[in-house]
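Predict the assembly for these two chains.
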Amino acid sequence: MPTASLPIVEVRVLIKRFGDFTAVDGISFDIEPGEILGLLGPNGAGKTTTIQMLLGLITPTSGAIRIFGKDLATHREEILQHVNFSSTYISMPYSLTVEENLWVVAKLYGMTDIPRRIDDVLKKVELEAARTHVTRRLSSGQMTRLALAKAFLTEPKVLLLDEPTASLDPDIAHKVRALLKDVRQTTGLSVLYTSHNMKEMEEMSDRIIFLQKGRIVAQGTAQQIMQQFGQRDLEDVFLKLAREQ
Amino acid sequence: MKIHRINALVQRHLFLYRRSLPRLMEIFYWPFIDLVIWGFITVYLMKFQGQLPGVVTFFLGALILWDVLFRAQQGITISFLEEVWARNLMNLFASPLTPGEFLASTMALSVFKVSVVSFVMATCAVLFYDYNVFMIGLSLIPFVLNLVIAGWIIGVLTTSLIMRFGQEVEVFAWGMVFLFQPISCVFYPVEVLPQWLQAIAWGNPAAHVFEGMRSVLTTSEFPGLHLAWATGLNGLYLVLMIGWFHYTFNVCKERGLLVRVGE
């Protein structure tokens, strides 16, 4: 389904208002095939709302979202078959085992050869030993890796990651980043990535969009953004912009 | 509508029953307790058998059939609440799963619950009170089907309200069905209601089912008219309620409530 010559994701003049409050205020951006786009901004900048609109969980007030060249509003089912997400703030059913949870996800996406896929993905996130564990017994780091396993399991073309390494120790976080790069390299996966870890953002993102009060205030490579704001690193840019609010 | 997605959700809930005693209790314990309490009341009332003919049949039959409606409603609402409690709604609705498929899976689960609960209650009624609910005859089948659909209607209504108004109305999952009990005329005929309430009761498919059941027991005639009313009203309400669920789902997406249910 993805067409190589076109952006995988096209967002045009996207607006989301909740009553008087404007969460997302006319943002436009593309994600190219195989690109990792970082979405940066202080709390309440509109990052999560944007991701939720891209997942079809929130209806935009106006604007357009096209994924794989198709309108999300009218081709939701077809598009979401090739999109997945992972968020630190979302859990999976606690009473099911790791394997059962992944089995349900695989069935939801109509996957075949499920046991092998589950084996592969558990190996990738180093959770093989927890395969038969009930999810409620997992540590928060294991829980985050399960959420990532769920996202990788369906072999998406677009992956939306909302602070995917927030509760991981530096070793596992490093492995997750390496895994993401590897998957991107081998499958051409496109990723939209949010994080409050500026170093991680710099390391992972091909391009960064900086959101503030629902608007794009800067975009480009990490280097370009640092130059634009005359700062030495992204953290200083973040602090400068956040304190200007 | 994709069967594999409905199957995935049904299986997801069946996994829960493997290792959850409270969930198993919901199927076995409460129906059993209901039956024991009402059964002994019925045994007591049997002392007045002369004055109240067919009291065992009326009460125990009505109790078992009421539980069909109750469990059908619970099958839908509790399945939705399980997803809310597990904070799993985002995972589900960010997948290709459609709201229609979600409802279909809860309806399938409701049929599973009703089947198990009915089997438990019917067996206990035979063992404890020598009462066979199947004595009502073949007309029991369309009655039960209508009660299941009536339970779905109340279940979809309750689910829509929880989705729209969140935790504050979660209690409806257990209470809403009892709002309909007085006008379902489970344990008494419609004619005992005041005239104005009778008019409302006749708009309730469950009232036609229970009235029909009593008609079978007292006259042994097949209550075709009651069945036709129950089926027609159920068909109408089910279509309206599914439309209402989709409407509410879209409102929740517009207001950002879908990602916040349960918070």
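Residues 3-255 of chain B form one domain. The mean pLDDT of chain B is 88.
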